[in-house]
Amino acid sequence: IPTLESLQAIIAEDIDVQKVACEWMDSFTTFFQRGDVEGVTSLFIAMSHWRDMLALTWDFRSFHGIDAIQTFLSDRLSSVQVSGFRVKPEYTALQRPYDGIAWIKIHFDFETDIGLASGIVRIVPQPQNAPWKAHCMFTNLEDLKDFPEQIGSLRNHAPNHGLWTSQREASLAFENEEPTVLIIGAGHSGLDLAARLKTLGVRTILIDRNPRIGDNWRNRYEALCLHDPVWYDHMPYIPFPSTWPVYTPARKIANWLDHYAEAMELDVWTSSTVKSARKNAEGTWDVIVERDGKERIFHPKHLVFATGIGANEGKTPSMPGMENFKGQILHSTKHKHA
Fold this sequence. Notes:
single chain; 338 residues; alpha/beta; seven-stranded mixed beta sheet; Flavin_mOase-like; oxidoreductase; N,N-dimethylaniline monooxygenase activity; FAD
């Protein structure tokens, strides 16, 4: 983090924050829309950072240092049609998180030829009242223009008289269709992804070996409580109630995941196991799923592993003298209570 000392800069008491922010954004917008890589990079300090999530790279990418940012822009600016930069002045502010550290934070929206996007940039002062420069930039894809999420005014407006139950059963069975995406694991991340894909109209099936959604939390040790505070753990479309505790007990989050899958009408096969998955000559996957003693072969275009770290499969080491130990030998995955 650049300090005012390392920047050899000071901040005037009467600084016009909005003016400084607008001047930087005006230059950035002009250079960016021209495809002027050198112009854009001239607005960044040498040790700067750019994090892009799908907006400009179709990937999750981080670029550290001006050389990496220049290479990224050289590769992408000519093929990304960017327009409609709009600063959000209500979020523009001078921030001083610690003594000797300060920046102006700017929020903005923009568009590409494919989607709607947003950005956040922090700019820092320069020596001798020179124009401010960026220290870190974040760009994020918010929505696809031609395939928006089916939410709000785009939700289904048709009434459903007596057909919902049979439609849900047919959707879950996948009898005469293939999923586009198969997700292994119906935990937090699997459900999160499936919900997003559903609102984009992408047919998705989740496979989970547990009998009930949420068992990945329900079956762990009794005292388990999430160490992430509640505002880090919201699911798409259905946030936790405002009464939700800051730190969620494991069994409470387990029940919530079960409720969430039902409310979002996600297609989950529980008590099911993926026996194998191989890429075929057509570029899709051959995935063998065992359920109720029967095997079904799916051919999804995309296969996602959402099994968590280690998939709760404990590996017990072999140690000299284990066979002579008279106490209990227990892997942490088997621990339930003290």
